[in-house]
């Protein structure tokens, strides 16, 4: 990262702004990287609100360190380095940012702090979008949370961003040998967490929903609106993996357990049986935004977002999120 390189216009302006202490110009240039940095923080932290906060902290830290940018590395690389270390500092101070046992036999663990990521906030850079779905889907984000923080950072820098080992080592103040070893261990864990998933994240991958996925979301919403439990059950694979976050202990591994749990919890019973839904996407995954109308209420109120992983026309994984009080999802609060 010390080789001489020509500066682009933004970098030249950035250096001039830094030397002049021009906060307005500094903010204008760094703001162009906000979405990419926020996704990077989200991959590290699995929480949208935390990612927002750490992106802002990245800009504050960049301002305080502005004199250290000499143009030896690209401005984007310099900001990614700061963001990575901001996230590592955050994780070092928090003891509630690791998966916890689900409390159910053979049900693995739950990431209770997991939040969905609104697609409207994903980077518009086509190069970022090429890999966005593979590395923003919930299964990937959850799997990354099973890595120790520095392994997490190494995996994201090396396998997602495609940084060479030397650049990752310098960013994390590690040796190349340490980075290589951490990456090998991280890949083993990722294979264990994602045994049936594509793991070559640097190869081009589509981020468009398939007709199958769109059809399943429509059927899922229709079943809710008709209170059709048989139809809903038919959409679920027998080995469904379901979790409702941020509640603990809701993880199940069968379709019947999931449906029985919804009914015993009061859903589809009087007062919780008047549904409407709209098709959406979060984390570049098919999702249903579910709205519930209470007796006497003229409007359907946003209730939950169900994010679906569809395999062969059926729902293999369903992650539900409480959608109330989350305007950043970009969903209408009522229908």
Name of the level-1 CATH class of the largest domain: Mainly Alpha
CA radius of gyration: 22 Å
**How does the helix and strand content classify structurally?**
alpha+beta
Q: State the helical fraction.
A: 40-55%
Order of helices and strands: HHHHHEEHHHHHHHEHEEEE
In the predicted model, the low-confidence regions spanning at least 5 consecutive residues are none
Kindly identify the CATH topology of the largest domain: Rna Polymerase Sigma Factor, Chain: A
Keywords: Sigma factor, Transcription, Transcription regulation
Pfam family, one: Sigma70_r2
Family: Belongs to the sigma-70 factor family. ECF subfamily.
Domain RNA polymerase sigma-70 region: 31-95
